[in-house]
Amino acid sequence: MNNSSLASEYLTKAFRYLKEAKQAYEEGDLTGSIRHCYDTVQSISRALLSLYGFYTPEDHEAQMLNLIILKASEKGIKLIRELQLYEQKLYPLLFLDESSLKSGSVIARNYEVKGLLQKVENLFELANEVFDEFHN
């Protein structure tokens, strides 16, 4: 499998995670939606890394994107910075278990998760643009 094929697979995986994030949100599972948004960010990061021939078994793929920043286009750099920012914001939330919080506790409000979904969807669209530009 070449770099482009692998990157394409990761983008497909990111699309699935994004779809699952939306579904979880619609069902009222805000923490599940956040988790799937994080997985979307990670899959997009893996797609970018593999596009440039970098593979990592590590978590925090977005932080590894500094390896390719000098090779990236202006759009690619923007995408990298956004992915890194959202990974930093979302990662700590993965450790919270909503069921263990005292009643009435909320780790994220409905409108915050809705905004997050929109932002991650925009990142996915930008990732597809970067992927297409890479091949032109």
Percent helix range: 55-70%
Q: What is the string of helix and strand elements? A: HHHHH
Query: What summary fits the major beta sheet?
Result: none
> Helix tally?
5
Low-confidence runs (pLDDT<50, min 5 residues)?
none
The whole-number mean of residue pLDDT values reads: 88
- Oligomer state equals single chain
Helix/strand-derived category reads mainly alpha
Shape: globular
User: What is Rg?
Assistant: 15 Å
Beta strands, count? 0
Distance between the termini: 20 Å
Please indicate the percent range of residues in DSSP E strands (runs of 2 or more).
under 5%
Written description of the protein model:
It is a single chain. The protein has 136 residues and is an all-alpha fold. It has helices spanning 3-26, 30-51, 61-64, 74-90, 110-134. α1 runs antiparallel to α5 (110-134), α2 (30-51) packs parallel to α5 (110-134) and α4 (74-90) packs antiparallel against α5 (110-134). The radius of gyration is 15 Å and the shape is globular.
Q: How do you describe this structure in short?
A:
By secondary structure, this protein is mostly helical. The chain has helices at residues 3-26, 30-51, 61-64, 74-90, 110-134. It is globular.
Tag the structure with descriptive keywords.
136 residues, mainly alpha, single chain, 0% strand
